[in-house]
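Margin note: ligand = adenosine-5'-diphosphate.
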Amino acid sequence: MRRAIYPGSFDPVTNGHLDVIERARKLFDEVIVAVAINDQKQPVFTPNERVTMLQDAIKARGVHVAPMSGLLVDFAAAANACAVIRGLRAISDFEFEFQMALMNRKLDSRVETIFLMPKEEYTYLSSRIVKEIARLGGDVSAFVPRPVVEALANKFRG
Ligand code: ADP
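Resulting structure:
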């Protein structure tokens, strides 16, 4: 049984995240999408909202969504996962991701980080840019699942 963790803020989930989840699902028996609840980024959506939006968007078997607090390596060990999945969009992601991967290896050498590249059309997509467009009243329906379009509209309306 090969299990991987895909950690992130998912504030909110985008089609880019879903693309990475699909790819990870083909490589592992089980993928746990871990929603970081104690991150420093001042998310727009609550942990519950982020988990629910992911659960609504993911139909594949073998993919589970869970909130995560504390260290990623501790979460991975508790879940008995052998790998951490991260998405790489562009060179700009590389430096931070490289640092994180090596630090996680230092903290627990049993966990391997695996980078997956999304479909080209998603390489420019981020939760941050989607929120920015939605905040300004733009159409984000090509970038996120339908329930997320509605959730963004509700957040930024009024
Ligand atoms: P974080 O706050 O940890 O960067 P995000 O929710 O922004 O988390 O993203 C989680 C993971 O998914 C990260 O590895 C990020 O690089 C990756 N990711 C985000 N958007 C995309 C995308 N459009 N294509 C591929 N990977 C992505």
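Residues 8-10, 14, 16-17, 20, 86-87, 89, 93, 118, 122, 125-127 surround adenosine-5'-diphosphate (CB under 6 Å).
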